[in-house]
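Box S1 | Example of a co-folding query
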Amino acid sequence: MEVQAAFLLPDATGLTHEQAMRAALEYAAHGSRGATPLVGAVLLPPGSGPIVGFHAGAGTAHAEAASLDFAQANGVDTRGATMVVTLEPCSHTGRTGPCTQRIIDAGIAHTVIATADPNPAARGGADVLRAAGIAVTTGVLSAEAQALNSRWLQAVRAGRPFITCKIAQSIDGCSAAADGTSQWITGEEARSHAHGIRAKVDAIAVGIGTALADNPRLSARPETAAVTSQPIPVVIGRRPLPPESHLAQNPRTITAETIDEALTKLKAAGVEHLLVEGGPRLVGSFIGRGLADELLVYQAPVLLGDGLRSTTGLSVTTLLDAHAFTLDAASAAHPNPQVLGADVLLRLTPAEKGHHVHRNH
Ligand code: AOF
Ligand code: ZN
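Box S1 (continued) | Returned holo structure for AOF
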């Protein structure tokens, strides 16, 4: 469902900065995770009600810009207003222009920020605003704002892409039947949803085993689309690709023997969002190493008995070793779990350390 990325906050006049920040955090979760963080902004114009904006996902307007666009489209005077935002406004031109310049041009008097942006390309916005004579307050609900994007922040600090792992499986945790057949475990809607995820990432990785077995192209858009708008294919493993395979024929394919080597090469290629599609061993390795920032599970209502497990190689011998995840925030645009035809999608994020599965007290 399409949602408007900015609107007048109903029944909300005289908000404190903290209340406005809570609203900004709440609406930030309406965005979609990936190359960019979830960000919300609440504009408090002197002469009208609060206007909330959020960043819907990579390539769309930033939260501050969304709220200012709405104000300007509706004739709201932004001069002297306060901008309350969950992340330090960016100072760079990326997919969109610098939010600092939008804030300065709008005549904002005061900017209230929850947490700093560590991204080397975008950071430093607070100083830019101060230098322009705008009052800047930082640290309002910073713990909450950091928790909202804890995995994106970790990825940026580690200098690696944000990593989404995808699993399509039966209810008994298999991604293929015992004979290896796996084509249509999930239905049409789940498959087209998964294709939409492919279309928004910068790169798609598979293990060499999957590359050898399936000879995939790992493309996301029609073959007629510009080559550079396709995600970069990535193959990880120690065996070579056959020269006649689709991936070997693609000059953009990145190959690496190990996950670490792949992440280094991807960062150098400017990849900010990586999708790991399989097979079970590669997905298990990413999860086992704590590198799955987001886990998408497409769960089909079938049982495959002694089929092939959807992840392998995780050394879990006792419940305390379990890799625990929690359901990511839901919103009108992104219900979670989400029913897709006969299947169900779970959007998961790793549970914080110490938050474990203790079901039997
Ligand atoms: C903001 N407001 O709503 C977001 C910010 O490629 P771009 O132009 O979308 O820039 C992405 C970077 O900008 C992202 O990595 C992060 O550092 C920052 N995100 N900044 O002022 C927003 N989403
Ligand atoms: Zn920005």
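Residues 36-37, 39, 55, 62-64, 87, 89-90, 94-96, 99, 117, 119, 122 surround AOF (ligand 1) (CB under 6 Å). The longest strand covers residues 162-170.
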